[in-house]
Amino acid sequence: MDVFPPLPLESWRDTKETLHRFLQIVGKIRLEGSPRRNHWWNVPFHLTGRGITTRPMGPIHGGDAFCIDFDFVAHRLVVRTLSGREASFPLAERSVADFYRDTLTALVALDIDAAPQHPYPYDLPDARRAFAEDREHRSYDQAAVSRYWQILSQVNLLLEQYAAGFSGKTSPVHHFWHTFDIAVTRFSEREITPPAEADPVTREAYSREVISAGFWFGDDTVPAPAFYSYTAPEPPGLPDRPLHPEAARWSEARGSHIALLMYDDARAATDPWSTTLRFLDSAYRAGSELTHWDRRRECPGGITDPQLRGDPA
After folding, report:
1. pLDDT digits (tens, 9 = 90+) for 62-78
2. Residue 116 per-residue DSSP state
3. Could you report the per-residue pLDDT of 117-153, keeping only the tens digit for each?
4. Contact 300, 165 (CB under 8 A)
5. Bridge-partner residues for 250, per DSSP?
6. Percent of the chain whose pLDDT exceeds 70
7. At what angle do helices 13-33 and 96-109 cross, to 10 degrees?
8. Which has the closest alpha carbon to 145: 43, 223, 225, 71?
9. What does DSSP assign to residue 61?
10. Closest by CA position to 123, among listed 78, 181, 72
11. Which InterPro entries would you find in this protein's record (predicted)?
């Protein structure tokens, strides 16, 4: 299998839009069933050997602790409890309304009292339509979903390697269900006062200065898969800093700038893996130098001990 196999957005747009809403339904259950952590780290999905998982959560209202997994090998949603009980159903041939109903039915069958507090899509065009009423989105191309999971898994490993080079506060590598991207974020610990008009989600996510790196599968704004990095808040002069490789560029987005390396450009490189890591490092360097981050937090190869690194005495 290619390190980064192809997956043009238009080849699976309908399936992606359906799957995105499936993930939001389960993600909102995760939001209800887990203790809140800084910067919403409790909410995203994590990769498994067969798909993605909420990780264990609960118990809620005295019920059993439980976990919800998307199994993208068998193409099933699986709910398991700490006591060993299980309920599952196929992901294919279901509208969003069907998926919402079947997910809640599986929870009830396992005596789990959990449901999304706001059962509507988040930041999507149909945000005013309840999940239970969405019979429009019902595409599920198993081959495309398998490819999505394979790419997600490869990018997860690449971001883990990138994350190893920084010993300061760093988020887990996690898959966000609201934006359908996978990311890892480095923090400087410098406190930031968000704009008064910022929504609660944004205020918590960006209460500290950050440099974030990740990958998305394409959307209406950038209609193709891409690796990205951004610094928030953005320092003056950021889009003037060099990026590597030459195919990488700065792109304006919502009044600020984001570094982009299109997925197909990375795939076309002689060494896609090293090329992408070089891109992420160049974007990090651009932001960290302008904001004067502590270079002592950098630890190439994940090694922090000076003797093991071979630093001169």
Report:
1. 778 999 999 999 999 99
2. -
3. 999 999 999 999 999 999 999 999 999 999 999 999 9
4. yes
5. 259
6. 99
7. 30
8. 71
9. T
10. 181
11. DUF5996 (IPR046038)
